[in-house]
């Protein structure tokens, strides 16, 4: 029988062979470890089954690894930390989903499960297992990229690169995400340059998989074939400087929005130039059939642009409430002083800044229903406009969860919006739905000392965190809505149609 040191040596060798794509040697080591009949070897093998199963597209091998971990948790928890156990299980389900595209396993939503497992791993990780933390963030990015949620994915990759700036997989996938999103930007040079540099830097990494290295090399080749050497050699990426020394509300607003990435534009993510400030995203174009004697008020492009204008203004006003709640240089005490508040002796807080946060949360959340209204009109779903909402939009029969056949989830923008809906319905973000219901239908108490098991109560800090979280979800949802429309419109043009482009209202006419 192999001793522990021999098992660990073979296990490490197997991963070296896996990275070099020498699968024959990997199988040789697996056979040797299996013959040892050691519990410790089997525990290590469970991880190897999961990773090899992905490389060979063998879902049964992945499932073998998952089942072993779940059935031997008591023993495995003596060997591995909770962070690594949750990480390995999440990898198993992610790899299984990547191969099979099966969304439900034993009646459980596997996408929600994967996110939950990775986030548990991150929660238990105290920083001692840095590589697992980085890889968990990268894999969450990979999952969101596969779901069309490119902005969410970019944020996960950026967080991973803050911990390890040279992590190859994060760099490759960041480059791919940037290429996907550049079509929504009118000035895409900086995004393309950032993508190119990400691929170049990734090749210097020693932790790239065989396939990821090929992807990076292929994209670098495309860049170099389509751009001059002088142009590529002079690429430099700099970050827009955020000045914390604000003197007025406008400057504080810019600082707050840049730090929390709350502007409605894609440059808000890269923050390389002045274009990262402002809410510039809009319907870039629409292709419509030519109709004789059509009235201006019936023009679909203008109707949808009007809907989007309202969505953007709702977002901006909700964001303003959030900003005002945090701008301490603005004295709002006169509002509090003129209101009689009865002491309920339960440490509940009442003031205008808390109310601004509550109103901000409600208004951000309500934008999701307006996104549903937009989709209903754009796709001619014919849902009664008084019954359209983000929760029910997706289903022909909500109780049976029967999805409308009209939806084409090959469209990544639409796929992203649907996944946001599922997160709020089933996932960790369900807490946001509970907060919204409390604010809208009951009462949400903000307290100094809420009890752990107390429903509809939280601290002011927890409320602020929830508002920022819903604001980012809605910001991304609006961008995915535009990505959904742009994808359809880019494929539409025919001989008997015309392409309409956005026309801005000058500032002095707003």
Describe the protein's architecture and organization.
There is one protein chain. The chain has 510 residues and is mainly α. It contains 21 helices and 8 strands. The strands form 4 sheets. The chain has a two-stranded antiparallel ribbon. Strands 3-8 form a two-stranded antiparallel sheet. Helix 3 runs parallel beside helix 6 and helix 7 runs antiparallel to helix 8. The protein is globular and about 80 Å long. 33% of the residues are buried.
Helix content: 55-70%
Number of strands: 8
Strand sequence of the main sheet, in spatial order?
1-2
Large-scale geometry:
globular
The helix-and-strand class reads mainly alpha
For the CA atoms, what is the radius of gyration?
Answer: 26 Å
């Amino acid at each position: 029988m192999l001793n522990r040191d021999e098992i660990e040596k073979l296990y490490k060798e197997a991963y070296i062979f896996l990275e070099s794509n020498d699968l024959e040697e990997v199988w040789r080591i697996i056979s040797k470890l299996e013959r040892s009949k050691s519990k410790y070897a089997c525990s290590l093998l469970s991880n190897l089954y999961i990773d090899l199963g992905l490389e060979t597209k063998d879902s049964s091998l992945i499932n073998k690894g998952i089942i072993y971990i779940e059935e031997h948790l008591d023993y495995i928890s003596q060997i591995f930390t909770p962070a690594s156990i949750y990480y390995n299980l999440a990898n198993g389900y992610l790899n299984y989903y990547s191969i099979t595209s099966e969304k439900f396993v034993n009646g459980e939503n596997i996408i929600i499960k994967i996110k939950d497992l990775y986030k548990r791993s991150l929660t238990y990780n105290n920083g001692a297992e840095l590589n697992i933390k980085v890889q968990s963030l990268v894999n969450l990015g990979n999952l969101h990229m596969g779901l069309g949620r490119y902005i969410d994915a970019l944020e996960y990759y950026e967080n991973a690169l803050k911990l390890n700036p040279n992590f190859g997989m994060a760099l490759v996938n960041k480059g791919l995400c940037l290429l996907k999103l550049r079509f929504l930007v009118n000035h895409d040079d900086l995004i393309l340059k950032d993508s190119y540099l990400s691929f170049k830097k990734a090749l210097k990494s020693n932790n790239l998989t065989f396939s990821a290295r090929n992807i990076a090399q292929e994209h670098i080749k495309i860049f170099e074939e389509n751009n001059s050497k002088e142009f590529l050699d002079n690429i430099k990426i700099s970050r827009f400087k955020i000045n914390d020394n604000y003197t007025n509300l406008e400057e504080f607003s810019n600082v707050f929005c840049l730090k929390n990435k709350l502007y409605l534009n894609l440059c808000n993510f890269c923050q390389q130039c002045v274009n990262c400030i402002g809410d510039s995203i809009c319907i870039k174009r629409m292709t419509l059939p030519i109709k004789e004697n059509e009235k201006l008020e019936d023009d679909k492009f203008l109707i949808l642009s009007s809907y989007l204008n309202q969505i953007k203004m709702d977002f901006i006003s909700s964001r303003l409430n959030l900003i005002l709640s945090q701008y301490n240089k603005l004295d709002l005490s006169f509002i509090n002083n003129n209101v009689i508040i009865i002491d309920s002796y339960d440490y509940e807080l009442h003031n205008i800044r808390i109310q601004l946060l509550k109103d901000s949360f409600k208004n951000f959340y309500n934008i999701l229903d307006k996104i549903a209204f937009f989709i209903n009109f754009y796709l001619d779903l014919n849902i009664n406009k008084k019954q359209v909402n983000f929760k029910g939009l997706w289903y022909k029969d909500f109780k049976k969860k029967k999805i409308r056949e009209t939806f084409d989830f090959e469209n990544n923008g639409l796929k992203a919006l649907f996944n946001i809906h599922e997160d709020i319905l089933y996932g960790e973000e369900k807490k946001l739905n509970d907060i919204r219901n409390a604010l809208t239908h009951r009462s949400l108490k903000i307290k100094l000392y809420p009890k752990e098991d107390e429903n509809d109560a939280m601290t002011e800090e927890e409320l602020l965190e929830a508002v920022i979280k819903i604001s980012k979800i809605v910001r991304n949802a609006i961008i995915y809505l535009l990505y959904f429309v742009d994808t359809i419109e880019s494929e539409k043009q025919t001989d008997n149609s015309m392409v309409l482009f956005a026309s801005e209202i000058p500032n002095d006419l707003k």
